[in-house]
Amino acid sequence: KKEIQQVSEEEVEQLMQSLPKVTIMNNKLELVNYQGFWHPSLANYLKSTLLFQRHFRARNTDLIIASFPKTGTTWLKSLLFSVVNRFNYPNKDQTPLLKHHPHELVYRLEVDVYGNAFEYPQPQHLDDLPSPRLLHTHLPYTSLPESIMTSRCRVLYIGRNPLDTVVSLYYFSVKMMKNMEGEDFRHPSMEEFFEDFYTGRVPHGPFFEHMVGYWNQSLERPDKVLFFKYEDLNDNQVFYVKKLAEFVGMPFSTKEESQGVIDDIVEMCSINNMKELEVNKSGVINKYFEKESYFRKGEVGDWTHHLSPSMVERMNTLSLMLEKLEGTSLSF
Ligand code: A3P
């Protein structure tokens, strides 16, 4: 078996020292700016990112979900898994989603696989996964390993409106920090966290640049990158699940449609259903992330309960400004 080449600690150390750093979450979470985006420095994240960038070889059949945190990754993972595996588990009571959290079925490359720290398959095992491999990354488009760009593998991105994303990220981050630091962790207020999000200083931020990178690719190479918006998916799930299936080359037949296969998938992956599954109610992913914390409300517009009018106005102004600056047609 091919040995995975290592990235030396010295190299990581030197790189770390040369990169800009900030701390957020009341000075408890350090981020380093690598290739224009902020990444957590915990858990040797930079090292595993380098390993992923250098050693991952995409197969033409790979299906890679990409996302900014809290934009609907878990949802898209469960939908993609269901669509691709529907012939393996024709009986809906057999779907592995009943026994595994979606994050255990679609691995995150730079953490689960190349992070090496947890109970997931090691990089060598990537070769043993059957095609199509379903994988995930939070890296921005410009940091993806070259073979993802050059192979014929496909990328599915999910974006979400910034207001719901910042709220979702706030609650998730506070939980995560309490798990890391202890219950008495003094968490930042929403105002403080908003400021960090606004200035891009959150894991994988800046948010807009992350989305725009993939959005532009989805316009330039529509057969390579499919861009979902959380809100659109929420409004018209059947339509987008069909679109997803077509994009990955496994369209639904008319017979399947009339048998209600799409509706079953939508129902199975709905937040209300997923939230109630025993497997998603307890336990953790990667030590600090409670399985249940991936299913909070799943609503469009929950921000109205959490953000002040001035925060909303500032964020909207920033979105508009960036839309103009980037010359992008992406809007929420
Ligand atoms: P909220 O915190 O607004 O509820 P990610 O999967 O990228 O970490 O994103 C998590 C967000 O997606 C959370 O948003 C979560 O509740 C929501 N979510 C998780 N599963 C979902 C599903 N099946 N349908 C809709 N939203 C879902």
UniProtKB/TrEMBL annotation:
The GO terms describing molecular function are: sulfotransferase activity
- Is Transferase there in the keyword field? yes
Looking up Pfam families in the UniProt record yields: Sulfotransfer_1
Transferase is among the record's keywords = yes
Swiss-Prot/TrEMBL keywords = Transferase
Enzyme class, spelled out = transferase
Q: Which GO terms describe its cellular component?
A: cytoplasm
Kindly state a single biological-process term from the GO annotations of this entry. sulfation
Signal peptide residues are none
Q: Which PANTHER family match?
A: SULFOTRANSFERASE SULT
Family recorded in the similarity comment: Belongs to the sulfotransferase 1 family.
> What is the designated name of this protein?
Sulfotransferase
> What species is given as this protein's source?
Spinacia oleracea (Spinach)
Q: What is the lineage of its organism?
A: Eukaryota, Viridiplantae, Streptophyta, Embryophyta, Tracheophyta
